[in-house]
Amino acid sequence: MKECLRRNAPLDRQGTHTYDRINVAIDGPAGAGKSTVARLVAQKLSYIYVDTGAMYRAITWYMIREGIEPEDQNQVNQNVRDMVIELIPEKDIQKVLINGEDVTPHIRSLQVSGLVSQYSKIEGVRSRLSHLQRQMALRKGVVMDGRDIGTTVLPDAEVKIFMTASVEERALRRYKELRDAESVTLQQLEHDIAQRDRLDEGREISPLRRAEDAILLDTTFMDIDQVVETIVSHCRSHVDGERNHL
Q: Which positions are annotated as binding ATP (predicted)?
């Protein structure tokens, strides 16, 4: 697999030193709001946002379209090795392209959501994407969200956040996202999210878990602005602390 992260937003400002940029890892279960929060945090800090979940979803959508079952791991791995994946940061969304095709409109469907855990647990898929994600973060100034960023992908990230919320709250948030696009019930989403939690926490490769040095942030009773400001405050405090030690 080849990768390309198009950096539409500049990382280097005149007079900015390396110690002014850090990497931020945001992990958590399905429906916790990681992607929305991570994108807004990146905007506040003038960082680059990397939605790792979108990468796994894009691969899942591609495999579904091509009729490649997750049980056929050799075929899955071969296709992952050969594909070109591009992430294009934009103001309100991060576009995902596979082999030049914009797949962004398709990757949040219920079908993809139901199967993404099956493809993402394949060792060849996970190791390949983890490597690409580390490459994207080499220059610092990256906010990356997923399920194993702070534990596996970027264990040395300067700020690690583990976002969570009750299953009921996460299902309600996802319901509000999907109800205009798909026929779905809140009860179904609660079941799906609880099942996804079990799959993510129980997989052998990079299971969902909080890094020992991650800040636990329960967002059940917080709005998006509060969550974003809390994380941005942690990031700025870290940068200020590092600068004061120079």
A: 28-36
